[in-house]
Every structure is written in C-alpha cells, then in structure tokens.
Specification:
Elements lengths: L1 E8 L6 E8 L10 E7 L4 E4 L1 H9 L3 E2 L1 H10 L18 H20 L1
Parallel strand pairs: 1-5
Antiparallel strand pairs: 1-2, 2-3, 3-4
Amino acid sequence: MLAIKLQRIGKKHQPSYRVVVAESRSKMAAPPVEDLGSYNPSTKTAILKKDRLEYWVKTGAKPTVTAHNLLVKEGVISSAKKAVKMPKPVAKESEKKEEAAPAAAAEAPAAEA
C-alpha cells in the first residue's frame, strides 16, 4: 500500500522534509516512488506539486497524519485536521519506587498521631 510521507533531509538540528509517495512499510531512507515537494518547518514554507498530490490521493495513497495536516493547511485536501497522538513517556522503575517511598513516609506520621 502506498503512503504520502515526510522524508527527513538536512543537517543536524536543521530539519527539512521531502513530501514523497512510498510504500507504507518502507524505511525512510528507501528510495520513494515519487517526490511531490518539500516542507521547511523552520520557515513554515511548503512547495508542493498539487496536481500530482491529487492524482496520488485519487489512486489510493493514504497520507500519514502529519502529511494529512500539511496538505489540509496548504489547501490540497479539503477536510479537517487530524489529532497527532504522541506516546507518553514511560517512567523507570527506580522513579516509581522513589514516588511511592515519600507517600508511605507521609502516611506513617499520620498513623502515629
């Protein structure tokens, strides 16, 4: 299945992205099927081939959530933006024990009184 994705290019701490059509399960460094434009997040500028994007959407290529929101912002797709779900960081076991220890210590003086 084909997907419209953002492929990162650029130096460290200076991200820039290509908007590409690639296999949905391919690695990001793999060669894409077609290059559809670019996006620079530092200047918020996007240069897109709108006719080719419309073609790929009609043929069944599904954009990722971030690519979908970019296409909505640029007016290529007329729909609502999607919420980007970010995973919550998992606390380490040592941090969990430290959080539980002060709670237990706070309960002990209350029990003595």
